[in-house]
Design a protein that fits this description.
about 375 residues; alpha/beta; 14 strands; about 35% helix; globular
Length: about 375
Amino acid sequence: MSMMKLPALRIGNLEINPPIIQGGMGVRVSGAKLAAAVANEGCAGVIASVGLGLFEDAPGNQFVKLNDDALRDEIRQARKLSKGVIGVNVMVALSNYASLVKVAVEEKIDFIVSGAGLPLELPSLVQTRDIALVPIVSSGKALKVICLRWLKSHGRLPDAVIVEGPQAGGHLGFKYDDLGTSTEASLEDLLVEVVEEAKTYDPPIPVIAAGGVYTGEDIAKMIEKGAAGVQMATRFVCTDECDVDIKFKQAYVDATEDDIAIIHSPVGMPARVIKNEFVERISRGETIPFNCKYQCLRTCIPKSAPYCIAIVLANAAKGKLDQAFAFSGSCAPRIKEIISVKALINQLVNEAQAYYASRQTNCVEA
């Protein structure tokens, strides 16, 4: 009996093997260095486009160009470091969304991941079929809305879709009151729902599971439930190549289950973070005055926001955690060391192989 192994993930003309996409993490957590290291192992690396430029110290009228130039630089750096599959994550909620997508297209990125809203107009910004388009959804209904719009207006379907469950890090596409309760949907249930919708198209759309995927066994189980691959973000923070400051990584290593919290983000969405003194301050209702030079998120109302989420996340990336918090997924407390990307991916593949071997042994014994 031949040994089962993880199948390759195919998105359009791209082959990703092992079938792992490294999730985009902003601000400045997943840049060229991390994305290239992941791509060099056969997986897909992703640069998060949000806030790449040093906007904190620049005039507001430079915001768009600053971030365009920074994204262009990151993509080019990643290409120098890797010949593998490189993507860019561009959030729909960004006010400079169209400009960032344009840069990614000009730089001939392999694929674009787009969530934090429904990317209904993404195909109009990407005229070529050579760049794969991968929306993020949290329901089968959302996928259907996207597919119907894309087919009607642009004559194309998503090349793949990421279904993100409620255990993910950062801003979450779920209601605050549903998180951590009996009404919280499981990634497994959401995956089955989205796969069912994805199967109704010809050809079927590959579905990628995200949010709380931690081990190689988790990857194998998601594939058994119909996923074509997985997206993992939190696991890649504590790697040598992750672009973020060491203090950010140490916050993950030191975190316990009790340190993970869901907060109300000033942009109107719940967000999962690692608790610290700063989180305690904002939880008590403390405000951190700021001068908004450029409304970077469409959903943000600067006049009523208690603090600037962009500046907070930029501070976190610099390791200034006395003035910030680290976004994280629910599985951050399980991470106990900082290792190389190569070692992490080898570990995940070995865990998946061990799971498949145990299943085969059980089948033979049965």
